Amino acid sequence: MSGIGNIDLKQLRVLRALLKERSLTRAASQMGMTQQAVSAQLNKLREVFQDRLFLRSRQGVVPTPLAQELEPRVKAVFDSIEQLIPPERFDPASVQGTYVISATDYAVEVVLPELVARVRQQAPGLKLIVRQFESDRLHAMLASGELDLALTFPAFAPESCQSKLLFSEYHICVAGNDSPLHERKLTIGDVAELPQLIVSPTRANLIGSADSWFASKGYGRNIVMSVPSFSAAPTCVASSDCVAFLPSRILPHPLVTPIDLEESPPCFDVIAAWHPRTDQDPLQQWVLSLLQEAFPGQV
């Protein structure tokens, strides 16, 4: 043989057709080619394999022993190529593999149960891995394929990523159940002076998502504590003199009670984010459709 680099897919298709039809005329008809074009490709194949491959007969052509030996190999090549092409219709029930999601504990509590229920019902062969949310590595993890989806807030989503709005959320200011703050309505100025707890799931600092809202009203915040998870916030608030702004969907909670405010911070969005490289991936599109189904029209 003169080398695999001298053969192309078109020539292999001609070889497959001749092995099946045993006729240049029928092979040409099947492939939509002229008989002369098929003959030209056959001549190239003969050069590659250094064998005549087919001999003329009254009925058409007869394969040589080498051509007969090549037949199952050619079939295996095309079977492998067909496996590279995804099926036209995505069937969740036949999906096998692993799908990796990055999420804060808020998304784990609020978003994931709706998604997991649908995945387990429709795609039992798909395994889910939920990772701790890491905003600093989010772009690299999505771009490399280490991560398939992030459930987050727009401020944490890389600009290079695509995103889908799941719903709009709002904060409720809470204090411990026995706090005297429940006896009156508070102004923004009142709240600004109170010791406040914030949730910072990505970075250990004292910077909160409502800081800009307080600043726009001319106030700074008296932030005295930061915790890394939303689930830890109610316990810490209940055992201290702190107040906290918590997302409405993790409330009510038995340890805290909402405070009556004259004005509340603006709403914020909860999104799903992914890398553009998976835009056309059937599995990605299906997962996003499940999220759309779980949170329809909740903007």
Automatic annotation (TrEMBL):
One GO MF term attached to the UniProt entry: DNA-binding transcription factor activity
Gene3D superfamilies registered for this protein in UniProt: Periplasmic binding protein-like II, Winged helix-like DNA-binding domain superfamily/Winged helix DNA-binding domain
Domain HTH lysR-type stretches: 7-64
Key words, A-Z: DNA-binding, Transcription, Transcription regulation
InterPro entries attached to this UniProt entry: LysR-type_TF, LysR_HTH_N, LysR_subst-bd, WH-like_DNA-bd_sf, WH_DNA-bd_sf
SUPFAM superfamilies tied to this protein: Periplasmic binding protein-like II, Winged helix' DNA-binding domain
Family affiliation: Belongs to the LysR transcriptional regulatory family.
Protein name as annotated: LysR family transcriptional regulator
Lineage, highest ranks first: Bacteria, Pseudomonadati, Pseudomonadota, Gammaproteobacteria, Oceanospirillales
